[in-house]
Design brief:
This protein is mainly β. The chain has one helix at about 60-65, and strands spanning about 1-5, 25, 30-35, 40-45, 50-55, 70, 75-80, 85-90, 100-115, 120-125, 135-140, 145-150, 160, 165-175, 180-190, 195-205. The longest helix is centred in the N-terminal third of the chain and has 6 residues, at about 60-65. The protein is elongated and about 75 Å long.
Amino acid sequence: MILFASQNRPRITTWSFTSAPLCGLGTIDGTLYLGLSDSVAEYSDYYDVTISDVTGTYGNQSVCEAANNTWETSTCWSYTNNNYNYTWQSAWLDLNNPVIAKIVKAGLFTFVGGRGATSEIFIYKDYDSGSPYSKSFSLTTQGTTYLYGKLNSLYGAAIYASPSTAKEYKVPLGRTGRVIRLKMTTEVNGNYSSLVNTTLLTKQGKIR
């Protein structure tokens, strides 16, 4: 199995702080909390962000914030989220019978998370790395966000999200080959996702 991110480089996230975090906590649902000198911060979403100075277009605070930008010390900043993909790829699979053709009827792919992202599966056959068969499917939105507390209370309002449970997607494939390679590319659009299991539904073909 091979797992790599866009452009075959691992994803690295960097932060800029006025003071270094004092501690960190990762929860079972993938949330990361950072303890700062004067507050607790939550790392949410998984985007690359393009930051642009748009003060020339939105020249004062009210106009800047009305356009959903951020006003900071006389400068208007625009933040654009950029999605990225991660890719999983298997080795060549003969399913313990290298001389028999396999008819791959469908695939069962179990994901945790994703929340509306798109995943695309590619199937290569017989050591041919050329044009593969491909099929796209969408990961359903899971979990509900709940708000607890009042905005004007001492600690403000807290937001809780119900955990995302594993969900199985059955994808029709219809591909025949003596050996099969799978490749899957999944979009990350602000919510973590994890492929936890893959099962191929196959039928025996002819001796080749």
